[in-house]
Every structure is written in structure tokens, then in C-alpha cells.
Design brief:
Layout: H1 2-16, H2 25-35, H3 45-56, H4 62-83, H5 89-101, H6 103-107, H7 115-134, H8 142-152, H9 162-169, H10 173-178, H11 180-194, H12 199-204, H13 218-226, H14 243-279, H15 281-301, H16 308-316, H17 319-341, H18 348-377, H19 385-394, E1 402-405, H20 408-420, E2 428-431, H21 438-447, H22 461-468, E3 474-476, E4 484-488, E5 491-495, H23 498-503, H24 505-516, H25 532-554, H26 558-571, H27 576-588, H28 592-603, H29 611-624, H30 630-642
Parallel strand pairs: 1-2, 1-3
Antiparallel strand pairs: 3-5, 4-5
Length: 643
């Protein structure tokens, strides 16, 4: 039976796997897995090595197999874990199936990601330790230490489980330290697993397209392993403590759990914890300790959840958390099963019903969760928005121009087309985040010898831009501080002087109109919006289109600005920034009745701590309702913020 379940899981995941690029780090792994590159810190060397090995071995769908197989294997390990407790084996299939169909686990099994393999290592270590725990006096297998080493080379969040694992071996610690041969063999097994980190300096020595830390040097390898550039436990570079946001992140984790497990699932999880307290207190301590450290981690790491990309990053870190909850869910099923069996019924039919009831409950719950999540997951295999995004950036740049990308979605998707597919290699593609590093400057000189590098002497990016602007048109995803920048499709164009920018205004507007008539703005339904990376790329389009509308409004063409603002609101009616500017456009061109209708809706949720929203309100009052006393109040609030 379990074999049929595993085949079903594999076939389903294989059928729904993504065929194209995906957002976030997934696109980076597509570069790494095709070029023997080194991924961003901590490098994920084992995963990177396996990606390239599978490619060389011509394994079909090798990019996604490394997500699909570990998920199926983890499901099997969950099944085997519950079989250790000598209960009905059919019961063990319920948590095993549930695991696969939980939304973040399912989603990140369909795209290239490291988290599926990370959970496999966690599940395997947990299984081996539980197996040893139930035998009482036996020491853990040497495989535990080898897998610990491997886990270190894949994703370091497994360390959140170590305090909990302690409770599964604490009664044998004295025996552990007495066995010196065992200690030596265990250490050697750990080092052997850890040796896969050699992939990073070896790959780096061949100067691959991606290697942000220059891992062939000791200092670079140290920075890679420790995530020195980001901050070891920070979610992103530049992250700062924010108590309100951290509390929101913690609260959001509970919301995610409620949405993914449903209320009844949470009840079963609670019953599972009660079951463990009664029968296996040390396992209960393992679960509780691990959940505690997971929550502390989610609180400390401070994900920014106000934007879709932050939410997309956040949900990936729930995957290991969900593994523990699935274990508790399985023990909850045991609790319910034992409770049902404690009811003695003389009638044979009713006795049969009580035996079947628990299986029916499990199947119904799994079906509800799976069918709900399938409504979103079914779109994954046909996602092509990230490919269009990369092409929409590259296709609209003039020949031999210079492009600098900053965000993950643009850097990795564009990087895949540029480095792997050789698409638009006439462009000079640079990374500004590591511009000041000497090794990257050497890489740039080798890659683009025709550029002017005199600014490297002072590590002056602004001077570098200026020095090269006479020969090349320069485009940045996000404007640099120096010079003058104007919207240009999905990027910004650099002008060395204000006069040159104004002189090119009419041409720039015409070029932008032509670009926006051809761009592939994602049109997403409610189910697709549950894939936060898709929402992120859609918001990238709308944000750049809004920048063009602002430009038109500022440079005296409000009627044309209105066209693009309406296009934005047709895709996302909730964008308040576009709503506010559209009100100003209508007010400025004298359509005050239309502006008033929209302003009354806008004003209902006016954020008086947002200077931009107050500016929109003041502009409306100035053009259409100067005598309104509300204008004085808004102006005072605006002064408080901007003073």
C-alpha cells in the first residue's frame, strides 16, 4: 500500500512541476545548476553539486527532481517513523500524505529549491534518533553524523532541531562519551558529510558567472559559510530590528498554520502533544523545544511581510516547522484511534464503523486540504511570467547598453537568460551590490575590457557611471544617487545632466509608450495570487508603469498619464498609489466631479502618517476644493511628517 502511495505522490509532483523559470532563489539555482556556479551565502554546495551532477548525467527534469524526490522520501520517512510505534500501518499513511499536500511544501516541491532536501535530512535524522530512542540502550547510527555533515552543506536551518534532538539521546550521553571508537568514527562520518563544502572553492576557482563571495579564498569561503554579508540570522541584507514587524511575523506564522492545517488539524496536533505527554514525554519535549526555536527564529529573522516578496520568502521557512507539526498531527491520529478503540461495542457492525471512522476522517481532511491547494498549485507547471519578465527587460534595451540589476527576481531571471542561454550578450550586465569588491572589479575587467574602469581607484560607482555614459547608454533597475534618472520600461535610464534629460523627454515618452504597449503584464486570478512570487513580479510591472505615469504627470501630459493609471487599476484595483495620482490627474485637468467621486473613496482609508497620500489629498483640495477646512488639517499633518 505504501508503495502505491509513494508512486502516486511522485507522479503527481512530477506532472505539476514547473517547466520554466520561477521567482526568488529558484532562478538563481537554474544558473548554478547549468554553470557550476556558487549560490548566494551560505552557498548550498551539496545542492549545487547535485544539480550539476544530475545535468551531466542527463537525468530528466533534473532541476525539479531534487525537490520532488526529497519530498516523496520525507513522506516515506514520516510513514516509517510512525511504523516504529507498532500501530496500524494504514494510520501512518495519513500524516505521510498530509505532509505532501500542505501548501508551502507542495509548492516548493514543484520548483528548484533547497528546502525539500533540507527537510529530508531533518526527517532522516529524526527517524534514526527515534529508532535509537525506542531501543533504549542503543547508540545512534553513524549515519546520523554523516547526514548532519551533509545537512550543514545544504541549508543551515536544520540547527533549530538540534536542541530538540538532544532529548532523544540525553539518556545515553554517558554511554556516548565512554565509547571512544564510536566518537572517532562519528566525527569522521560528520567530516565526510561536511566535505561537500569543497564544492564552493573548487567551483569558484573556475570563475563561474555567479560567485558573490569569491569562495576560492579563505576569507571568501568564511563569508560564504557564515552569511557574513547578510548577517548570519538576517532574512536579507540591510534588515534591521523592528519589533512591530517581528511580532506581526510571529502572528502571521499562526495564521499560516491555521490556513494550511485548518482548525480541525490544529485540534489533532494538540491531541498529538497530549498523547506524547502520556506515552513518550521525551518526544513531547523534542517537539515542543523545536517549535519554540522555530518561533524564536521566525521572530528574530524579521521578514518584511508588507510586500509580496517578503511573504514569499517567509513561507519557505515554515517548511521545516511544518514537519514537526505533521509529526504531532500523526500522534494525534494515534490518540483518536486509541480513544475510539477504548469504546467497547457488542454490535459487530458498530465495531466495524468505529474502526473505519478514523480512516474516513483522515481521508476527508487530506482531500479538503489537497483540493484547496490544488486550485493554486495546478498553475505552477504553466508559469511563464518570469521568463517574460527577463525578456521584457532585455528585449527593450538598446544595443550595447549597460544594465545593472538589484532585486532577486530581475538579477536571477535576467542572469539565467544572459549567462545560460546567451541572450542579449551585447549588453554589459553588472551587479552594483558587490561593485566595491576587488575580485569583482577584476571579473568585470575580464568580462568587459572595453569599459572605463578609472573610477575603481576610488571605488566610486557614481563616477563609473558618468565615465561610461558618453559611450554607452546606462540602465539601472533602481536609480543610483548620482545623475538624473527617467523611467524606461522596467528599468531606469541614466542622464548625466538635467538638461540632457529634459532634451530627450519627447523621445523618452514615445519609447516608453512603445514599450508598454508590448510588455507582458501578468494578469492573475485569485488562486494565482496565492503564489506570492507571481504577485511580486506583477507588482514589479505595475510599479514601473506607475513610475512612467508619474513622469507623464510631472512633465505636463496628465491625460496620457491617466491612460496608464487606468491600466494599472484594471490589473490591481487596490493600488492606492495609482488611485491617488489618478485623483490628482482628474483634478488638474478640471474633471473635479470625477476626482471627487474617487477622492471620497480614497479618503475613507487615508493614512495620515503617509506623506505621499497627504500630498494626493492636498493636491485634490488645491485644484477642486480650496475652501474645505479639511485642507488645513491635512496640511498640518503633512508638515509634521516632512518638517
Amino acid at each position: 500500500m505504501e508503495l502505491l502511495v509513494l508512486i502516486f505522490e511522485f507522479c503527481l509532483l512530477y506532472w505539476l512541476q514547473i517547466r520554466n523559470l520561477f521567482g526568488g532563489d529558484s532562478a538563481e539555482y537554474k544558473i548554478v545548476g547549468n554553470t557550476w556556479s556558487v549560490a548566494h551565502p551560505p552557498g548550498y554546495p551539496l545542492y549545487s553539486f547535485l544539480l550539476n551532477l544530475f545535468r551531466v548525467a542527463h537525468i530528466p527534469s533534473y532541476m525539479n527532481i531534487l525537490s520532488i524526490l526529497p519530498t516523496v522520501a520525507t513522506s516515506y520517512l514520516i510513514y516509517r517513523t510512525f511504523c516504529l510505534f507498532k500501530k496500524n500501518k494504514l494510520l501512518a499513511l495519513i500524516p505521510a500524505l498530509l505532509y505532501v499536500f500542505l501548501f508551502p511544501i507542495w509548492l516548493y516541491s514543484e520548483v528548484p529549491e533547497v528546502f525539500s532536501l533540507n527537510n529530508f535530512f531533518i526527517a532522516l535524522i529524526t527517524y534514526l534518533l527515534l529508532k535509537s530512542y525506542l531501543k533504549r540502550n542503543s547508540l545512534p547510527s553513524f549515519w546520523v553524523f554523516f547526514i548532519l555533515g551533509l545537512a550543514c552543506t545544504n541549508h543551515q536551518t536544520f540547527i533549530l532541531f538540534i536542541p530538540g534532538w538532544y532529548f532523544l539521546i540525553k539518556n545515553r550521553l554517558k554511554l556516548f562519551f565512554k565509547e571512544k571508537k564510536y566518537l572517532l568514527k562519528s566525527f569522521c562520518a560528520f567530516v565526510l558529510g561536511l566535505s561537500f563544502y569543497l564544492y564552493a572553492p573548487i567551483a569558484s576557482s573556475f570563475n563561474p558567472p555567479l560567485d558573490v563571495e569569491n569562495s576560492k579564498t579563505l576569507s571568501g569561503l568564511f563569508r560564504l559559510v557564515t552569511r557574513y554579508t547578510y548577517g548570519t540570522f538576517r532574512s536579507y541584507m540591510g534588515s534591521k530590528p523592528d519589533l512591530l514587524n517581528q511580532v506581526l511575523g510571529l502572528f502571521s506564522s499562526f495564521v499560516y498554520i491555521l490556513l494550511d492545517f485548518r482548525f480541525i488539524g490544529i485540534v489533532v496536533i494538540a491531541l498529538g502533544f497530549i498523547f506524547l505527554l502520556k506515552t513518550h514525554r521525551e518526544i513531547a519535549k523534542f517537539a515542543l523545544t523545536t517549535i519554540f526555536f522555530e518561533l524564536v527564529f521566525l521572530f528574530y529573522i524579521n521578514f518584511s511581510l508588507i510586500v509580496a516578496f517578503g511573504a514569499a520568502t517567509f513561507e519557505r521557512f515554515l517548511i521545516s516547522y511544518y514537519f514537526v507539526l505533521v509529526l504531532l498531527f500523526g500522534f494525534g491520529i494515534f490518540f483518536i484511534y486509541d480513544s475510539i478503540f477504548s469504546i467497547k461495542l457488542k454490535n459487530g457492525f458498530y465495531a466495524l464503523v468505529k474502526n473505519v471512522l478514523i480512516y474516513v476522517f483522515g481521508v476527508i481532511l487530506i482531500f479538503i486540504i489537497a483540493s484547496s491547494n490544488f486550485s493554486t498549485i495546478k498553475y505552477v507547471k504553466s508559469i511563464n511570467q518570469f521568463d517574460f519578465f527577463a525578456k521584457d527587460i532585455l528585449d527593450n534595451l538598446p544595443k550595447n547598453s549597460l544594465l545593472a540589476t538589484t532585486s532577486d527576481n530581475s538579477s536571477f531571471t535576467v542572469g539565467y537568460y544572459y549567462f545560460v542561454k546567451g541572450y542579449r550578450n551585447d549588453i554589459k550586465l553588472i551587479t552594483t551590490g558587490i561593485f566595491n569588491r576587488q575580485y569583482y572589479q577584476q571579473v568585470m575587467k575580464k568580462r568587459y575590457p572595453q569599459l572605463d574602469y578609472s573610477a575603481f581607484k576610488k571605488n566610486d560607482l557614481n563616477q563609473f557611471i558618468k565615465d561610461n555614459s558618453n559611450k554607452y547608454q546606462i540602465f539601472f533597475e533602481t536609480p543610483s544617487a548620482a545623475g538624473y534618472w527617467a523611467p524606461y520600461g522596467l528599468v531606469w535610464k541614466y542622464y548625466s545632466t538635467k538638461e540632457s534629460a529634459e532634451k530627450d523627454k519627447n523621445n523618452l515618452i514615445a519609447v516608453n509608450q512603445n514599450i508598454w504597449d508590448r510588455l507582458h503584464i501578468p494578469l492573475l486570478n485569485n488562486d494565482q495570487l496565492n503564489i506570492y512570487h507571481l504577485k511580486t513580479v506583477r507588482d514589479d510591472y505595475l510599479g514601473k508603469e506607475l513610475a512612467f505615469a508619474r513622469y507623464l504627470f510631472a512633465y505636463g501630459d496628465p491625460k496620457l498619464a491617466e491612460k496608464y493609471l487606468k491600466q494599472i487599476l484594471a490589473v490591481d484595483p487596490q493600488r492606492r498609489d495609482a488611485q491617488g495620482i489618478l485623483i490628482n490627474v482628474d483634478a488638474k485637468i478640471g474633471e473635479c466631479q470625477k476626482a471627487k467621486t474617487n477622492f471620497l473613496r480614497f479618503n475613507q482609508n487615508l493614512n495620515i502618517s503617509d506623506a505621499d497620500e497627504l500630498t494626493r489629498a492636498l493636491s485634490y483640495y488645491y485644484y477642486c476644493d480650496k475652501k474645505n477646512p479639511e485642507m488645513n488639517f491635512i496640511f498640518k499633518e503633512y508638515q509634521k511628517i516632512t518638517r
